[in-house]
């Protein structure tokens, strides 16, 4: 079973416009609503890839009810905790003429200690041996920066055979690193924001504070991704595509890694498959992938050996 813990779920409104004119009334060509936030995106991609998934987060108000209904429609097992305030709404603006995508993310509801504790207990109770546990996204207001770490440590006290994967940034990431998850995935901007240096990515990825992370992935948009698996660096090169909306491509990557790892236990195959999922998602208006498209892109993903960690 794959479990996804999301610190700040959302309902996404995606608006397609020719171009945004600042200071004027703008009318979209089309608009749509989808369940969103990193955790929900990952859960939805996992369902598309044929996996059973349980989602944990905080839901409130009419937007929370919408996400609950989407869980039921997609076959996602909903273990979210109900809260008083509304689940956030995030707005995504796609400018077709300029090929720009602008995202405005609300802060989200304020979450109390009791609600956090209830969700943490639910996750720990549900976890079983050999499960995959994914932590994804920012934390809602009021949520302790140790939230993901506390869950991970409790889970590890219960079972030593859970595979933990993390995709968050800032202080929550710093804290979660203390729990030694198996995989950490961040984009390049977030990774450089950790303050590990300003130079070569491989040098920063070799930092001692990351030495206990078995698989470290830094995604780089159209440049692909760079990963360190144990002491080995691998470049993942992706084909050029005319991206429509890359929002959610990192989430497709994370879901792809988890799905392929569960199926094969082959790290190189898993990241190649993940990169294909990410590329396919970038060609859609809203976060979605089709298995046939992933299969078509997969052979175009190039695996390039990029050296080893220096022992100096």
Task: For the structure shown, list the relevant keywords.
10 helices; alpha/beta; 10-stranded mixed beta sheet; 35% helix; UDP-N-acetylmuramoyl-L-alanine:D-glutamate ligase; 4-stranded mixed beta sheet; single chain
Fold and architecture overview:
- This protein is an alpha/beta fold.
- It has a single domain (2-308), classed as UDP-N-acetylmuramoyl-L-alanine:D-glutamate ligase.
- The protein has ten helices and 16 strands.
- The strands form three sheets. A ten-stranded mixed sheet has the order 6-4-1-10-11-12-13-14-15-16, sandwiched between helices. Strands 3-2-8-9 form a four-stranded mixed sheet.
- The radius of gyration is 19 Å and the shape is globular.
- The chain starts with a strand and ends with a strand.
Distance between the termini: 40 Å
Per CATH, what is the topology? UDP-N-acetylmuramoyl-L-alanine:D-glutamate ligase
Order of helices and strands: EEEHEEHEEEEHEHEHEHHEEEHHHE
Total strands: the figure is 16
What is the makeup of the main sheet?
10 strands, mixed
Unreliable segments (pLDDT under 50, ≥5 consecutive)? none
- Counted by DSSP, the helix tally is 10
- Percentage of β-strand residues: 25-35%
> What's the level 1 CATH class?
Alpha Beta
**Order of strands, widest sheet:** 6-4-1-10-11-12-13-14-15-16
The CATH homology group name:
Ribokinase
Count of distinct structural domains: 1
Gyration radius from CA atoms, angstroms: 19 Å
Shape: globular
CATH architecture: 3-Layer(aba) Sandwich
């Amino acid at each position: 079973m794959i479990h996804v813990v999301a610190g700040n779920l959302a309902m996404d409104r995606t608006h397609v416009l020719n171009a945004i004119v600042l200071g004027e009334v703008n009318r979209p060509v089309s608009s749509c609503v989808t369940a969103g936030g990193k955790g929900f995106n990952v859960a939805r991609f996992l369902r598309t890839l044929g996996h059973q998934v349980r989602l944990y987060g905080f839901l409130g108000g009419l937007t929370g009810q919408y996400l609950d209904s989407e869980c039921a429609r997609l076959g996602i097992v909903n273990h979210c905790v109900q809260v008083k305030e509304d689940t956030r709404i995030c707005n995504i603006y796609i400018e077709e003429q300029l090929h720009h995508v602008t995202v405005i993310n609300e802060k989200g509801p304020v979450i109390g200690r009791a609600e956090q504790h209830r969700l943490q207990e639910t996750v720990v109770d549900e976890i079983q041996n050999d499960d995959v546990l994914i932590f994804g996204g920012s934390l809602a207001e009021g949520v302790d920066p140790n939230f993901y770490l506390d869950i991970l440590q409790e889970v590890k006290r219960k079972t030593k055979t859970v595979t933990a994967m993390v995709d968050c940034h800032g202080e929550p990431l710093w804290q979660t690193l203390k729990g030694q998850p198996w995989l950490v995935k961040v984009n390049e901007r977030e990774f450089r924001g950790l303050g590990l240096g300003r130079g070569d990515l491989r040098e920063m990825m070799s930092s001692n504070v990351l030495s206990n992370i078995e698989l470290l992935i830094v995604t780089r948009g159209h440049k692909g991704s760079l990963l360190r698996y144990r002491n080995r660096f691998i470049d993942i090169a992706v084909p050029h595509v005319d991206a429509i909306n890359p929002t959610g491509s990192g989430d497709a990557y994370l879901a792809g890694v988890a799905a392929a790892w569960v199926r094969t236990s082959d790290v190189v195959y898993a990241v190649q498959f993940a990169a294909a999922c990410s590329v396919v998602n970038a060609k859609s208006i809203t976060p979605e992938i089709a298995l046939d498209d992933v299969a078509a892109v997969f052979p175009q993903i190039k695996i390039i050996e990029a050296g080893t960690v220096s022992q100096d």
